[in-house]
Amino acid sequence: MKAIIVHSTSSKEMSLKIAKNYEGEMYRIEHLKPVYKSRFAQLFFYGFQTVTNKSVKIKPMDIDLSKYDEVYLVSPVWAGRINAYMKAFLKQYQIKNKKVHIIASCEGGYKNYFITFRAFLDPSNEIVEEAVYVNNELVK
Questions:
Q1: Entry pTM
Q2: pLDDT at 62 over 60
Q3: CATH (domain of 42)
């Protein structure tokens, strides 16, 4: 079975649109606090949280990862790396012994994304795909 874990906050919700292209049970990472609506506030505040490694809180999720053999992790790139909310999910919900797909969405600048993402995955996982969508176009 496949699980699709997605985090998407922008008004375009590109990560959510990308996640819907995959088959599996979808789970959405949601912020515990209200989401900033302005693009500037999102870039500034969420980028700051990501760059400074600020701890963030997410809403509890009803997910049993043990029933999945494959996991898709879909989220936007923030400040060139894994965003604070996906990081919070990976710290709270341990993914082990799975086939993992890391899927990113961004408008550019993803150089360190996969490197920073892998640091939060257990080494028992097999990363079978790393893909990035830049301005809605797949750039593998």
A1: 0.87
A2: yes
A3: 3.40.50.360
